[in-house]
Amino acid sequence: MKKAYLDKGDNTGSPIGGNGVQTETKVAYIDGQAYAIHENETILSFIRRNLGRDLVPTLCDAPNLEPFGSCRVCSVDVALQANGAVRTVASCHTPVQPGYHISPSSENVQKLRKNIIELVLTDHPLDCLTCEVNGNCELQDVAAKVGIRKVRYPEGKTHLDRQKDLSHPYMTSDLSKCINCYRCVRACDEVQGQFVLSMAGRGFDNHIIKGSDVSFFESDCVSCGACAQACPTSAISDVFESKSVVGTEVTRTVCTYCGVGCNLEVSTVDGKIKSIQAPYDAEVNGGHTCLKGRYAFGFYNHEDRIRTPFIRKNGELVEATWEEAFDFVAEKLTTIKEKHGPDSIAGISSARCTNEENYLMQKFIRAVIGTNNIDCCARVCHSPTALGMQRTFGTGAATNSIIDLKYTNAIMVIGANPTDGHPVTGAKLKQFAMSGKTSIVIDPRRTELAKYATYHLPLRPGTNVAMLNMMLYYIISDGLEDKKFIEARTEGYDEMRAEILRLNIDELESITGVDRNLVRKAAHAYATAGNAMSFHGLGVTEHSQGTFTVMLIADLAMITGNIGRRGVGVNPLRGQNNVQGAADMGCQPHQGAGYMSSYDPEMNKKYELHYGRSVPIGKGLKIPEMWDEALNGNLKALWLMGEDVVQTDPNTQRVMKALDNLDLLVIQEIFHTETTKHADVIFPASSFLEKSGTFTNGERRIQRVNAVVEPLPGTKPDGQIICEVMTHMGFPQPDYHPRWVLEEVSQIVPFFAGVKWDELGEQGKQWPVKPDGTGTEILHTEDFKRGKGKFHFEPWRESEEINANGKDYPYIITTNRELEHYNAGTMTRRTRNVQILTEDTLMIHPDDAAANGIADGDMVCVESPRGKVDIKARITDEVRPGVLSSTFHFPDIMLNNITSDVHDSEAMCPEYKVVACRIRKSKGKFKHQPATEL
Amino acid sequence: MSKNLSELSGRKGLTDNLFEKLGTMAKGNGSPGVKEMEQLAEAFLVGKANVYGSATFYDFTRPENQGKKVYVCNGSACMCAGTQAVVEQKLKETFAEEEIGVMCCLGRCHENSAFHYQGNNYSGDDIKNIKTILDKPERRIEDYHVEAIGTPVLTEVFPGLDAFYAPLKSWLGSDSASLLEEIRTSNIRGRGGAGFPMAIKLETCRNQDSKTKFIVCNADEGDPGAYSDRYLLEQRPHSVLLGMIMAGYVTGASWGVLYIRAEYPEAIDIVEKELEKLYAAGLVGENILGTKFSFDFKVIHAQGAYICGEETALLSSIEGQRPEVRVRPPFPAQQGLFNKPTVVNNVETLAALPWILSHGGQAYAELGTERSKGTKLVSLDGHFNRPGMYEVEMGTPLRKVIDELGQGFRHEVKAMHIGGPLGGLVPVSKIDDLTVDFESFSKNGFLLGHASVVCIPQDFPLVKYIEHLFEFTAHESCGKCFPCRLGSVRGAEMLDKAQHDGYKIDRTLFDDLVETLEKGSLCALGGGLPLPVKNALQYFNEELSPYFK
Fold first, then answer.
1. Hey, CA dihedral for B374, B377, B383, B387, is it positive or negative?
2. Is B258 on the interface with A (CB under 8 A)?
3. What is the ipTM for the molecules in this complex?
4. What is the rounded average pLDDT of the residues B89-103?
5. Does residue B142 sit at the A interface (CB-CB below 8 Å)?
6. Residue to test with chain B: of A41, A78, A119, A191, most B Cβ within 10 A
7. Domain B462-547 coded CATH 1.10.860.10
8. CA distance A748 to A615
9. Tens digits of per-residue pLDDT, A176-199?
10. What is the structure's pLDDT at A244?
11. Is the CATH number of domain B375-455 1.10.1670.10?
12. B521 and A68: CB-CB below 8 Å?
């Protein structure tokens, strides 16, 4: 008998007593041995939990799919008593019952399995040795396991002549190898929710189709690769032959493409990346990821990578050695600092880099340069979230975790398009919306999620505050507030309530353009759900009232008691992979590492203790202020780590002028960008695949990034570059390694207290991490970080942009993201993603198109007071009349030529979402000349 | 089966039904156009592949159906009667070969020579008047003998709408729990084949906490040789409809769905017409007869797929999904149509409910045997001297049915296929061992099923008959489970080779195949095929042995 292991009182997995021994626990028997059963457990999971995965072979079963019961290979014998009459059942979908006597390997079932596989092989090519999945094919494994020697059937009908589909940049299919297990169809449905794949025909003629029986490329496939990963053979695969295992080594790391933080398993052959799969055991992504995470890695050794430092000499950027570049920069910075003071220098860190690198960057700026002029791209995305949530709750981070979707009854998604921006969380939200549970989408665009939502409130861009005030109004006036929660856990309610009840609903209805009854229904749905979660994105923050909107989202959570337990909370969908971490590490002027105030001398003492240098007190520049100060000559030097500010910051022309006004612009980059054109020094950095560290995802999960390959020759990890610069400036640092940096961070940042490089494991830990290493899934369970939650009232105000320009520029353009590309597209445009989405386009409502004589595909001149761009029209009713939408993934368009300097009144996040403009059909002459190289 | 697709389809529910729209779109051309289907997909927020995949499943929506003008019945009874070659030949005088399709089966098993033209079924001598029919297609309700011995439960004379629905008001005023008790007392078991106690299904559904529930009448009786459901729908529709209303009242369901075979156009029309009368009389709809109970009906026109007789496939079909058999649990009574609790019952089961409620559960329980209660409809095919529909008490000797009711065979018969294609193959030598009830048939290694009787004449080769069964299964297999999708084809291929290529079937392999189908299949189609095949091998070994080695 196996030795029982009793863990925390749970006798799971251990045999119980001998034959026939009964305890309170319900048991069933496997080959005569008793094991405790779990509720709602299938026989298959019961056997696997107790005796491992391999005892019962399966083909149609997959870890992330519902039981399906098509292959029947998992059949086992079941009797209701020992040696009783036997019934053969498919174990994958038959629930285990107390007292079952299960024989997973009886002669009968072994024969049945063998006979089924023999039938499968009558319609399967027998060319294993030349097949791409040879050695990693589930059919091959199962056939070997059941011991097939030969196929006895005479030759009959087959489907071996099916043609391959090689139409797509990533996805491939060879359906002659299909065994009709439906795993691809189910993955497309149950995991991604895309319904691109189905079976067609009937019976023996059943065959997998894409769309209306078109090719992968012609179909609506989003290239997430879930089908390819699910396929047990190579019937559906990808161009990287990801399931081929010949000569591969596998490294687990974390994706760089968004705040979801998918775990990736990267296969390498001879030090080169071959393919990427999503590990099934990853808590974050459970075997799923998107086309960026899975397939868009080709940039890492692209010929355009910068492989040597550059220094501008006589107006030209020329190649330099590392030593030359370090010396040049150290000397220049020292001179500028001496001449103009430390506050004439600023740094912008990168949310794409690791926590450790961000920490070092701010340490460099604060301790070595001696200024608080340090910011990062959180400024242009979620700075209002951090500020708004700090003001209301005390902590500027997601209160809950994505897994809480399993425990909630309603979701409210505001200003976020997660199926494009955060595809894996987006897929989970879409699954939630499709499941028929309550989903509320507040967005000017009819996003994919909005199509499936119970309530879609298509408000005019720039009216979030008005909308949320309406919801608060209905919750209060209809008496749906959670009085107990308000009483026990919050302050400032009465003042807010009085203001809300004074609101003029007629006015707000006309401002938002959304029917009050719809708003009221949505408010009721959120308030009465029991457990409701809110999610928000840049459609909330990138507004002149961004911080206020976040505070109202917090108001809604508090007024309904949706905070501090499973299945509730305020959950910002953080944009870039480590934007949470960049802020946590102190890459913002007003707060140092761990959000301690830059204005507090006590806090500074703590920093000084660890930095061994004096640290500046008081104000530092935020990114928009850096442009102001550069333009008026006060800012002399700027250090940029991995930020293409020219393409991505608003009002391009102004940003370029500011850059050109600097004495020194130093950039760490992996590619030449619109911004490196203005650089004085360029340091060639390594990509995330070439370095180690940690990223913190949108649910505060600190996960290990592990170098998959060596840094590309000529490049160094950003952390190493900073360490060497610090050393060159008389502040010696050891070579970059996340272990020592994290150790330093854990001593400074209270919520990193228990974070150790060697103890993060594969799943990472969610901060705050206690000194004993325990993480935290849910914040504010007992008290808020700030004590009591604080209600705020904020009235809606029209954006300055509309007030000043709305009359002459009657359309509003709002910027967005497309699934295929990431931010400035620096990386994704250097992968095959660019074959799938080739350009930025302008979404325009059919009525607006007709009124301006614009046909689908016509070039449209979009003009704002800042400038104009020419962009191709895509006519769609996903936007409402009067509203346009586009992206800035491509330097060919440079959409930010037209965006404005208006920013959030509190956090200075630019208002990318409300840009006044006018449109006319054009011939396309304002095309920007992108610089792909120098 | 996709929970997501069930949910998305359910958002538009029954009034704006995806499957119905697909059928309507196929009407003109025989198969819907791709563009139309893509618009449908967009409207329902499902994938283009889903709609396309569904359309390609059904006989009457798939692309192969384009251009078909007339359909010949290829069911077992017509095949054994040997009438269809003549029908086909006659039709070829007018139609091109590619314009002639097949349907299985039209339920005209009592007189055969069945074919379908422009929404009407024809049989018997109709083919002789084909010119007249082509000139002016007309509905011809055929005539067959109907008789009950003992208490008529299902064949009772219809007393007119008012009289028949007279007890409804008091039923709807009574405690639904006590009505369920009556049904439990009656001990009625489902007539669809599995014999599952109806009260348990109703109770399970009743106990589910859901605002929306459905009663679904499985009128996709596709068993060749069986026309008892057709009889009830055409001649006693109100037994079925009132049965559904009461099942709704007992479970708290407010929708009744009749899923009726496309091969029974007359049944569809009659039921729809009778429903109109019920709506006009206020006997269904909102607040029936001033009570709090509301119940609406939807008639779904099936599109030709035998597998839809399997209840979970049927539910997927209504949802517009591919009708592939679902795994259980969840059972439909817990999570059925549009993921809501659903009772699926056969026509004959539901039709007995009004009688049970009128006469009391005890009265019903007094009919029949100890475990098989009530009466059973038995349909006899054209090989009998008096083919037709007979209602007998459970437990009636089979001999009595054959000799007294059917008045014996018209010519020599060696076996009867009773209970549909998946029922047992009963050699005439076993007639005296059997009584018409679940237990007798199963004890003797057969299956009562629908109690349809198709005779296999002495001169009809059994090897051809079992090949027909394999082919039927191969044609109708949904293709989801491996044993049925592959095994049915391989079996048919071997039997074909054995008849034409001098090939001898390896008996061990054949036995392995039959066992794989029986033990491995997901549903009763693949799982049921082995029964008649094994019967044939057991009782007609001598006739079959030359084909085996």
1. positive
2. no
3. 0.96
4. 94
5. no
6. A119
7. no
8. 14
9. 999 999 999 999 999 999 999 999
10. 92
11. no
12. no
